[in-house]
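Q: Trace token order:
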Amino acid sequence: MARLSQLSKISPAAWEAVAKIGVNTLLLIFGILAIAKMIPHQLSQLQKLSALEAEVSRLEQRVNQLKLEQERDRQPQARQRIAQEEANLIAANQRRIIWVKPEATKRNPE
């Protein structure tokens, strides 16, 4: 009973301070737990981001290469080269040469 009478003697300001400390401690614990759960997610997102940045870099290099090829193919002399490569066409003033390996010489029967 003595303790109960001592608790009733604590002022309302002290109860308010204890309640504030308790609530703030509870909020702090929940905040720390939330941050602890977010850290692995953040790390996985950073790994995905670095992989995507590497992919973007690779694709930018590919785009630059294709742009260079496109510029090269737009040149006037490129039409003839493309026709020769793609359709095996040749100009009127050119002749097709086909290299043939000579057959092995046949042995003469003795």
